[in-house]
Amino acid sequence: MHAGDQHAASELVPLLYRELHRLAEAAMRRERPGHTLQPTVLVHEAYLQLLQTERIDWQSTAHFLALAANTMRRVLVDHARAAKAQKRPGGHEQVELNSRVQVFEQQIDVLSLNEAMDKLAAFDPRLAQAVEMRFFGGLSFEEIAQAQGISLRTAKRDWVLAKSWLYTELARGSAET
Predict the structure, then answer these.
(1) Residue 18 lies in a domain
(2) Which residues form the RNA polymerase sigma-70 ECF-like HTH domain (predicted)?
(3) Would you say residue 1 lies in a domain?
């Protein structure tokens, strides 16, 4: 791909399909029961969006997976927005945060999480990217450090800071509503 081979991306993505499916399964485990998207559909939607993206300079597998996690987040948020638009006003799409990463022990609105992620990205883009990779993509701290070009210790510190920031922001949003 770095040498300009047009077909390299189309050859790489199928090789990573199993990993993409693992990411999608992890993302869907955090969704509410009875969600209408299935992991395979999420993979295919993300895959199609990744293929439509012009000129991505993938640095590594971790970088590709970080982009895939970001794309899956956008697919889930778009799906939640569409579902919310079909419901009566005040309806909320619930998503349970992964107990493995233990960010919160409650269910939250996926749109509120997306809003908080956007605010975090405005505050510190690297922290928001770390959350996307860890929470939405299930990447390890080592993979996050590699993708972001930072030390393992910094990746872990960023994760703690981002969780705290999001917890505060989501708690503030809950108190306002």
Answers:
(1) yes
(2) 3-170
(3) no
| CA 33 vs CA 39, 107, 126: distances in Å | 13, 12, 31
Full DSSP string of 69-132: HHHHHHHHHHHHHHHHHHSPTT---EEEPPTTTTS-SSEEEHHHHHHHHHHHHHH-HHHHHHHI
What per-residue confidence (pLDDT) applies to 38? 81
Beta-ladder partners of 109: 94
Nearest Cα neighbor of 97 from 76, 120, 125, 68 is 76
Residues of the chain where predicted confidence (pLDDT) is lower than 70:
1-4, 6, 9-10, 12-13, 32-34, 51, 54-58, 86-108, 174-177
Q: What pTM, to 2 d.p., does this model score?
A: 0.54
Would residue 22 count as lying in a domain? yes
Domain membership flag for residue 15 = yes
Q: What is the number of domains present in the chain?
A: 1
List, in sequence order, every residue forming a beta bridge with 107; answer none if it has no partner: 96
Do the beta carbons of residue 162 and residue 168 sit within 8 Å? no
Domain range for 121: 8-89+96-176
Query: 136, 127, 132: which is closest to 156 by C-alpha?
Result: 127
Asked if residues 110 and 93 have their Cβ atoms less than 8 Å apart, the reply is yes
Closest by Cα among 98, 93, 77, 83 to 30: 98
